[in-house]
Design goal:
Layout: H1 3-17, H2 22-33, E1 37-44, E2 52-56, H3 60-66, H4 69-86, E3 91-95, H5 106-115, E4 122-130, E5 134-142, H6 151-189, E6 196-198, E7 204-207, H7 209-217, E8 221-223, E9 229-231, H8 233-243
Antiparallel strand pairs: 1-2, 1-5, 3-4, 4-5, 6-7, 8-9
Helix pairs in contact: 1-2, 1-6, 4-5
Length: about 250
């Protein structure tokens, strides 16, 4: 394992918590393997908020097509059986040039929408997750006149696949946390009691619907230009004490 691979592995974990970094990671994988394009995608039909597609050097029209529900279903139908034989963490090599010679089939639809615009043919991929309604994969692609991936390159995909699977676990946990936060916000918004969340500088973080109504119509409790909560002069000291954790409600 060389320095470039070590650096790439570190960037995978950076991108796990900052999704804006994934294009750079995918580009680095393409350059490291001398490929033309790449795609890192995850699909969970039971939890659409988990789905994502990160790519490098793939036209936007192809990305849009790949996110189309019909194409997702075709993709799983055509390729999931092969992955079931392979197993999570393993790699496959495919030459999909024949898809373009099968008009009227799902293969041709996939070729026309996802392969032909990019000019790719050889695909090497590592399976990162698999279930009845979900899968995740990293695929690197080469043109028809290029050589398929070597055994050493397949071993590289397996090595970084371990770290990509951990990144997927982080992604799923962040999605779950986000959903829980949204659910909590939904509950708070329907309470008949006003709820304000403040930090230790009296800065407003969250106000549910009832509290927002109070802020809008009351002159006794308001926000200053720094988004800090202000109350009547006689109550400000007590409010500051409560926010600082030194008082009791």
């Amino acid at each position: 394992m060389d320095d470039r691979e070590h650096e790439l592995i570190g960037s995978i974990y950076d991108a796990a918590v900052d999704v804006s970094l994934w294009p750079q990671v995918i580009e680095a994988i393409v350059q490291y393997t001398n490929s033309k394009t790449a795609i890192f995608t995850a699909l969970d039909q039971l939890s659409p908020s988990y789905d994502f597609v990160h790519t490098y050097n793939i036209p936007q029209a192809c990305i849009d097509a790949y996110q189309d529900e019909r194409i997702k279903v075709i993709d799983m139908k055509l390729h999931a059986p092969l992955w079931q034989q392979t197993g999570v963490g393993d790699t496959i090599e495919q030459n999909l040039q024949s898809y373009g010679q099968m008009p009227g089939t799902d293969e041709y639809i996939f070729y026309e929408r996802c392969l032909e615009p990019t000019g790719i043919c050889h695909i090497a991929a590592v399976l990162l997750d698999q279930g009845q309604h979900r899968w995740a994969v990293l695929g690197i692609h080469r043109a028809p006149n290029a050589q398929p991936c070597s055994p050493e390159e397949h071993e590289f995909l397996k090595r970084i696949g371990k770290h990509l699977r951990r990144a997927l676990q982080i992604h799923r946990q962040l999605c779950q946390a986000k959903q829980q936060k949204l659910a909590l916000g939904h509950i708070l918004d329907h309470l008949k009691t006003g709820v304000l969340l403040l930090d230790q500088q009296s800065c407003l973080i969250y106000a549910n619907s009832k509290a927002q109504e109070t802020l809008n119509r009351s002159s006794l409790i308001e926000l200053d230009r720094y988004n800090h909560l202000k109350v009547g002069r006689g109550f400000q000291a007590k409010l500051d004490q409560l926010i600082g954790g030194q008082g009791r409600i």
